[in-house]
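Re: the multi-chain job from yesterday

Posting the exact lines I submitted so nobody has to dig through the queue logs.
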Amino acid sequence: MSKALNIGMVGYGFMARAHSNAWADVAHFFDTGYRPVLKAAAARNASKLRHFAGMWGYESIESDWRTLVGRKDIDAIDICVPNDLHAEIAIAAAKAGKMVLCEKPLARSEAEGVPMVEAVEKARVPNMVWYNYRRVPAVSLVKELVAKGKIGRVFHYRAKFLQDWTISPEVPQGGAGTWRLDVDAAGSGVTGDLIAHCLDTAIWINGSIASLTAMTETFIKERKHVITGEVQKVGIDDAAAVLTRFQNGSLGTFESTRYARGHKALYTLEINGEHGSFAWDLHDMNRLQWFDHKVDGQLRGWSSVLVTDGDHPYLGKWWVPGLIIGYEHSFIHQVADFLEGLNTGRPAAPTFRDALETTRVCDAIIASGKSGQWVNL
Amino acid sequence: MSKALNIGMVGYGFMARAHSNAWADVAHFFDTGYRPVLKAAAARNASKLRHFAGMWGYESIESDWRTLVGRKDIDAIDICVPNDLHAEIAIAAAKAGKMVLCEKPLARSEAEGVPMVEAVEKARVPNMVWYNYRRVPAVSLVKELVAKGKIGRVFHYRAKFLQDWTISPEVPQGGAGTWRLDVDAAGSGVTGDLIAHCLDTAIWINGSIASLTAMTETFIKERKHVITGEVQKVGIDDAAAVLTRFQNGSLGTFESTRYARGHKALYTLEINGEHGSFAWDLHDMNRLQWFDHKVDGQLRGWSSVLVTDGDHPYLGKWWVPGLIIGYEHSFIHQVADFLEGLNTGRPAAPTFRDALETTRVCDAIIASGKSGQWVNL
Amino acid sequence: MSKALNIGMVGYGFMARAHSNAWADVAHFFDTGYRPVLKAAAARNASKLRHFAGMWGYESIESDWRTLVGRKDIDAIDICVPNDLHAEIAIAAAKAGKMVLCEKPLARSEAEGVPMVEAVEKARVPNMVWYNYRRVPAVSLVKELVAKGKIGRVFHYRAKFLQDWTISPEVPQGGAGTWRLDVDAAGSGVTGDLIAHCLDTAIWINGSIASLTAMTETFIKERKHVITGEVQKVGIDDAAAVLTRFQNGSLGTFESTRYARGHKALYTLEINGEHGSFAWDLHDMNRLQWFDHKVDGQLRGWSSVLVTDGDHPYLGKWWVPGLIIGYEHSFIHQVADFLEGLNTGRPAAPTFRDALETTRVCDAIIASGKSGQWVNL
Amino acid sequence: MSKALNIGMVGYGFMARAHSNAWADVAHFFDTGYRPVLKAAAARNASKLRHFAGMWGYESIESDWRTLVGRKDIDAIDICVPNDLHAEIAIAAAKAGKMVLCEKPLARSEAEGVPMVEAVEKARVPNMVWYNYRRVPAVSLVKELVAKGKIGRVFHYRAKFLQDWTISPEVPQGGAGTWRLDVDAAGSGVTGDLIAHCLDTAIWINGSIASLTAMTETFIKERKHVITGEVQKVGIDDAAAVLTRFQNGSLGTFESTRYARGHKALYTLEINGEHGSFAWDLHDMNRLQWFDHKVDGQLRGWSSVLVTDGDHPYLGKWWVPGLIIGYEHSFIHQVADFLEGLNTGRPAAPTFRDALETTRVCDAIIASGKSGQWVNL
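And the result, structure tokens for all chains:
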């Protein structure tokens, strides 16, 4: 008989929906021994919270996350609020002995993240950061195969995350919908929001980054605040490009922007090794591009592998070959692994500590963008 | 306050999972005023049924669908069993005053389907057949735009549904997993299983078919029965190709096979009109290929539209631009429309009557495959 | 030292340019022992002929092809005029002891083609029909590999040739530029012009066709004659679709139209066998799509092979890997093989006799399009 | 009547073939008033030179380029030898009053290139550097449309040139076939060979680069010399990645390597502007990817424009829509423009002076790769 796991959600926005869906669906497909229960949701905006809780069937709501953290009937706190609130909530939740799941990035800076790591480790509570793209099956497959040595020595890793939603100077900053443009709430722009995803995957697959240099830019220097209407300086990086050296000797390039017209959420990655290469992009997330140098010459080429077969990561739990899954499935997989980790005692990654490394690299990008210097990590 | 709708599921297989998921998820995303409840599931195999019901949280189980149909607390019967059982269950459910949702094809033949249509119409119960691909957003968008005259006069419609899972002569026929190869259970092979999907979409988008000629083939003439091990004649069509004339004067080509090595569930469609063309395929179901002849010449080309924006059909309910959805979402959309239809009194299509036309065309394909003659519809 | 081969060209249009280019370029890349010389060109339109001959450096011109055929200094006659003139010229050239190279299709009908075959065979002159697509390297590679058994038993062959240039009713028929719409000059519409290409390749790769049924259509029933302005009935097939059974038991589908908006010269072919599949299209002619079922399951997929390596057919003569070739190279390759055939005494295919089979199948398509019956070949 | 232009070719390798083909073919397609004549070829290796001259029909050969430069009957010197020989030959040719066409890069360094520019300008001889990719029609179209303001303010430019042919440590350096790995002959590795192409196009389309920082790497530190067999230090950059700021305020990223398994000559470029974006790659060089933000939302997408229509740059001279051209056509177009420039007096770009800017940026890349500092240009 599966065991109930009572979830306390903080937030009601886009990420809160993606996480709620994962908690609600996981037990229909993955037999982990746990049955998540959408126990309570907390937020200050009462009418939005009520609507959210109603759609998802949360059993109760709280207007203050502190009350939620204090409730005895909550097993895990899921943090889906702007970055500037992560630390306080996570530390309080850990102190209250709750499992803590925090939306990425862990924190606005390494300095802010360190006490979070200390808190969950001191409290010995299961903890995880929602770098969901690791659990896209095609990406998981790259990780598995690179780890097995399929491509041999790695020479290059490159990743981009391109969007185009802030090109208009009319887009405001601040508030619920556009806090990602407000440096106080977000910590940084595309670096913490998008490159952080690229870095998490890169470090997972290709190991730690040894050094980097970066270029950052803010194309639109002033925007109105969404609530006050006041024209403010823009403090975030609209775009960032990074050159890196990995500890394994390979070279990396990373780029992100919200000014690449025509791209919505184009997270792409490619890794080139001695014996082969993999490439993937989020818009066609069920496909893995694979070049196998060992194939006989005349028929050597890039294969477009439709990652929907039963022997592909996670796919045995879904439909039949040829039928694709979507964005939200990466969250369901992450929850499945988290629950599996509770069973086995081997925590699902990335933990808070794992995610701290990504935040450290983000800090280095912002610093290098200002100094123009290489930074050793 | 949303109203409960109690679902009685018949079956526990692949389709029962896809439908259950749709019932379970729909209210998290679509505010239709209804809240489906997974009330009971029925099947003869008790252990498989128990596992299925446990994963999905069905409140109770029944070993006989007749008992399920007779239960007062069931509002809708959802039929997810082999084709030879559709008619009896559907007619009984209609007589019991239940809403009836039947997996496609409606029946093994038009003759078998007619009393089903009569039963639901006589009982005046809401009814629907699960031709789910209409609700893939890119396909829905084609329907909308063709109906608005975006491509003008239509010249060509072509569709294929290619698979490769029965190439080995070792694949058996009959039983739970391979009933689709057993002509008694299935009625036909690729015609009723796959071309039926193509026909449903084609008729919806491009209108009725006036006449057709077909070629059918059974490549592997004998297979073992999965349970008895007895070598039997194969009665289904392994492959079928069809030439059609639509009532609007356009030409159609349809093909399906389970012997196209490398294709898993490659449903493709293309429609060519005076002013433009659309093309789509299921493996990349979130993309719509669109050629607009009205674009200035130098930059005229096929556009790959990523159908994930808020103004695309159904997508406003999901995530944000660039983040794709999967196969099962087509079922969620169909349920959403079904529930909406209950609200508005305008039934969601395809109804049993709509689906009967598709079955009639399937009959004509099988007949023409034998006679070599054109058949008028 | 290479031997001169004096070419006598009949015509000055699009095809005459493609052939002239092949004759002019071949010796720069292929060391066949022959050096084609653009000796003379013949046509009735003196000003156009002079311009054509000037651009290509033909040494002389003739206003009558009969004079050209009669010239002692001409070794080979290359026929690049409308289909209704093929037979007379080819037969006269053969009688005059010239090698004869004829643009496809061989003739407007099998009946017209038979005496052509007889003439070249009686005269024992080298002869060839310009079905150039066989010599696209990716297509040649498919032929080689299918012949070697790489894909095992073949189940399906499908080909299409889609264009969109006659959709407007304002396009006239007849004359130099639009004789392809004039049934008297062309013999048929898309069947002889485009499906003929598909058939030539199909028969070469997959063997003879045993039987077929076809649907043909003329969408625009009347057009003005380009010269007289008179409104005439359109006699050609604007579109044709064909179902075939090959002698090897595989099924074929063929389709062509000039009403597929967005497609310019989209010749596509696909062949599905037990162990793998190939697909190719002319718009991306340097790429071969290849599915190898023998690849380990997790990484099985369609490979996009860029056919530009030194071990690919013909490519060793061109540039370096990754650098593509174009449409006209297929003609250069055909000339290279023709010259090689002169050397070896093993004539390059397709000869007139080979091409007669394609014309026979074209006849059957037109007949079946009228009768609605299957035709045995 | 067209005027003869006598070409004196220095070299017989891959580039000499591509250029010879351009000279030989141009007058068949472009009516510029000039008729290039392959007058003489010069090189030290007599047997290779004889074979080369024989294939292409050069009228005579010379064992020393100095003799060639001194010949009265030569109008233009075409330099197709390793980079370390460019300067001496070009300067001598200019002094002799010859037109000079030099394979790219202009020189191994800006310092070496300056006297070359001075020589041709002092002698007032037509001069050009063979950055052929400007004349790929799709690339030319990007230039035209960006210049017309089609995409508005530019935010990003990114280019890569990826190869994989030096991954094996067994590849030697030095000599005729592998001089590109010898820093003395080549000046640099991928920077001068491949990034130089990317830079030439980028500066042409998006204007000058203001500053940059770069990372360079030599993966394989020692190689055998191809002739002596001696193990030597490798002095070239195997890979380079660059971050740039353009003078127009946009950001650039450039990367090149010969260690990207699976890529042969993958030159890709993308430019993102306020109203749209273009992307292109050399492997599919006839296609231009285009995103038009002004298209109505539901059908907005990336268009794959097949650049083969009569109204596309250069294409009116070739075949018919849908029929592609190849790599060598870019050289034919460059020759056509060069000849046109002789007619009009407006020299075809890039001239030596234009190309000097690219070499200056290459120098900065190599310097920054060593220093780790940003370099202002």
